[in-house]
TrEMBL record:
InterPro entries: ETF_a/b_N, ETF_b, ETF_beta_N, Rossmann-like_a/b/a_fold. PANTHER family: ELECTRON TRANSFER FLAVOPROTEIN BETA-SUBUNIT, ELECTRON TRANSFER FLAVOPROTEIN SUBUNIT BETA. The lineage of its organism: Bacteria, Bacillati, Actinomycetota, Actinomycetes, Mycobacteriales. Heterodimer of an alpha and a beta subunit. GO terms for cellular component: cytosol. SUPFAM superfamilies: Adenine nucleotide alpha hydrolases-like. The electron transfer flavoprotein serves as a specific electron acceptor for other dehydrogenases. It transfers the electrons to the main respiratory chain via ETF-ubiquinone oxidoreductase (ETF dehydrogenase). It comes from Corynebacterium kalinowskii. The keyword Transport applies. This is Electron transfer flavoprotein subunit beta. Its cofactor is FAD. Residues 23-210 form the Electron transfer flavoprotein alpha/beta-subunit N-terminal domain.
């Protein structure tokens, strides 16, 4: 069985993150970019599912500069990786991203697609489902547990209950942060990762035309910097704080 984990390089949440005023996109060139933590958890989960004869691959759609982050996933224990690097995909919306990744999954012949439920930069949470729709596969989302036998079985927590879900392979699954912390690559893994196969693909290789607008596309038309915050109003409680607060809310048409 061939398991593939969708991985993504994102700006480090501990650093400053800004939008480029020229493109309206995240300014990744001036950010500290890292492999998204939820992707690391997904890699850890996939490695835990691996049995004799199985392979765990990584799949990323990212700029050429993301190779370091992809190699980190290989150092964790993945067998090989596919890197879709194409300047025509810069700023791709979810619709185009899902189409491209689904084409890559088909081309590589994967049986199980594992993804994190939310990336730390986009927070959309719909990409795994969109990929499954392109593939015509079942999908199990927001899982807190996952196991494989003849089928994929998992658990999903809701406010009222824990759901047990199951689907035939091939299948797309998305995992939450309930999965165990990822392992740290050791020296042996880091050295081995340098020699592991990393295939680079383009839109042409996948038969995708980024300029095809016959499908709905989200296009950025304008971006601006967030306006600076104005100083707030302090209310000192001298026994009239409630009245002062009510007056402030009324003056600003908030009540």
């Amino acid at each position: 069985m061939k398991i593939v984990v969708l991985v993504k390089e994102v700006p480090d949440t501990y650093g400053e993150r800004h939008l480029s005023p020229e493109t309206g996109l995240t300014d990744r060139e001036n950010a500290d970019n890292v492999l998204d933590e939820i992707c690391e958890r997904a890699i850890e989960a996939a490695l835990g599912l691996k049995r004799d004869g199985d392979e765990v691959h990584l799949l990323a759609m990212a700029p050429a500069s993301a190779e370091k982050s992809i190699r980190k996933g290989l150092a964790m224990g993945a067998d090989e990786a596919v890197h879709i690097a194409d300047e025509n995909l810069k700023g791709a919306d979810l619709t185009l991203t899902a189409e491209v990744l689904a084409k890559a999954v088909e081309k590589q012949g994967y049986d199980l697609v594992v993804a994190g439920n939310l990336s730390t930069d986009g927070n959309a949470g719909v990409l795994p489902t969109m990929i499954a729709e392109h593939l015509g596969w079942p999908y199990l989302t927001q899982l807190t547990e996952l196991s494989l036998d003849q089928t994929a079985k998992g658990k999903r927590s809701t406010e009222d209950a824990t759901q047990e879900v199951e689907a035939e392979l091939p299948v797309v699954v998305s995992l939450t942060e309930s999965f165990p912390d990822p392992r740290y690559p050791n020296f042996k893994g880091i050295m081995a990762a340098k020699k592991k196969p990393l295939t680079t693909l383009t839109c042409t290789d996948l038969g995708v035309d980024p300029e095809d607008f016959s499908h709905p596309r989200l296009i950025m038309t304008e971006a601006s910097q967030r306006p600076p915050r104005e100083a707030g109003t302090k209310i000192t409680d001298d026994g009239t704080a409630a009245a002062q607060l009510a007056d402030f809310l009324a003056a600003n048409s908030l009540i």
